[in-house]
Give the backbone structure.
Amino acid sequence: MVVKSVSENIVELKKIEKIYKMGSVEVSAIKDVSFSIKKGKFIIIMGPSGSGKSTLMNMVGCLDVPTKGQIYLDGHDISTLEESDLAQIRGRKIGFVFQKANLLQTATAFENVTLPMIFQNTSKEKREKRAKELLKIVGLEKRMYHKPSELSGGEQQRVAIARALANNPEMILADEPTGNLDSKTGREILDFFKKLNKEGKKTIVMVTHDPSLYNFGDRVIYIKDGQVSKDGIKVSKEGIKVKSIV
Amino acid sequence: MILDYFSMVIGNIRHKGIRSWLTMIGIIVGIAAVVSLISLGFGMQEAVLSEFQKIGTDRLVITPGSGMTSTPASADMTPSKLTQKDIDVINRVKGVDVVSEVLIMPVLAEFKGDINYVILFGTPVDTETSKYLNTMDFFKIELGRTIDSSDQYKVSIGPVLAYDTFIKDVDVGNVITVNNEDFKVVGIQKKSGSPLHDKMIRMPIDVARELLDEPDMISSIFVKTIAGFDVTKVSNDIEYSLRKSRNVKVGEEDFKISTPTEIIERFLSIFAIIQIVFIGIAAISLIVGGIGVMNTMYTSVLERTRDIGLMKAIGAKNNDIMMIFLIESGVLGLVGGTVGVLIGVGISKSVELIAVYVMGPGYISAYLSFELLFGALIFSFVVGCVSGVIPARQAAGLNPVDALRYE
């Protein structure tokens, strides 16, 4: 079974639980969640605020480990790894795009894109070439040496996407990537993700609470109260064919 | 990788502008204090040591009185307790080559209507003693000639007396008046760097005694040992003989024998204490500076919590974050140290210039060695790094999820 998941699934979650301790009270953020994500798919994780979707994404992205259960990334159990090992995996296999671009304000767009490659010990020559290519792909070749404060919100988010692609990861995790953008710019960013998925063969996992975005995914996973309430496979423009598991 | 961290860190430090400079003030003050105090301390030490080396290490100086005397060069200015009998006693000690009594006394001298204090040196002028005395640095002649046994009211003078004491310069052939007696200058001595000796007026000791009306006065006795004899042993033998002839007990001597080596050691131990005090003062400033750096680094960790979370999300390991923050605090220390070294060099050079202007050359000179300057830079970097350890550990230990959520 594990061998099969190596070939098909990039991520597999098995009976995941995440419990936070707040003083003496234990709060269960994720309860018994299991699902897998196939390589090359565009997955949308949807749910209301506080539903636990960001917590789930953090665990899928190796930013956090579950209290119980296993997470397999490319067939390897990551749920018991140390922070430094997780950092290595994140750097190589996963690209993050957040609601805020989270760029280093003291560095230029170009320097921000080279940052993940510095942590992977990529040679200076290679990373400069790669950063220039990526900034060209996101249409910022003329804004390369500008600092974030000199870029618009949409431009900053495009720099963040270029940064997420720096180490050529297999999977991009996007947490509300259009949440801070106007609808036109948001649409451009979403189209870019779509292009990355179709042409770049990247697995995309996007977290959102905006129901109008479900159309962008191959599959929508609904999270409610820390559990998967619906896990569906979209089949037509009219709607989604929902396979209810609750 | 480290180089990339350096350029990242320099960007951060520049971004903070004036705050970075304020952080560095403590380090700047500390290092400036270290550099200026130590260089001036060493400079003074060097000046004193060279003073002794001018006398020579095979020489002894016997001065009246007990306990701490001033340098053999300046001798004791108290009325003489040394006598001709002492000289005879010393002459009989094994290993003694030449014995020369010297009379040293500050006197008022007049030149072309201008009156000033000068230091009278009365020395024997017989051929054998002159031969020995004339090998001493401060008796060497630059212009004219040295005084000899045929001279009576003739003198040689130090360069400071010649050029920097009276309104007009004194030349060979001029006449200087001391106690209403005229003395013809026959020679001007070489500059020795010793302010006392460079202001001397040297004349035959008999003439000096007559002039001062002190027929038996001896300020110091200079002794040259025979080559091959142990100076310390000769010194002990002289002490024994003098104690016996002057009828004093051990520990109650009314004379003092100084060997240059012993005096050098005594001065070195005094200077060691002075240096420790200097370093203590500087260390306090550096500790304060280090706390300043630590405070700034803590603030920096708080301000950049989101950046830390982001860097971790995109692959930075705990060690990478730790390294970035340590380099930042180290660079703050190093830049502060560099500015401190420059200011310290400026201060010590200024003090040296002021000392030369006010007191003349030879008192204080800044001793700026490569080891001192390089050591100060390394030390400032280390102080910075050490101050950054705890904040850097805090930064490295942040949970990426919490850090990214930090507002």
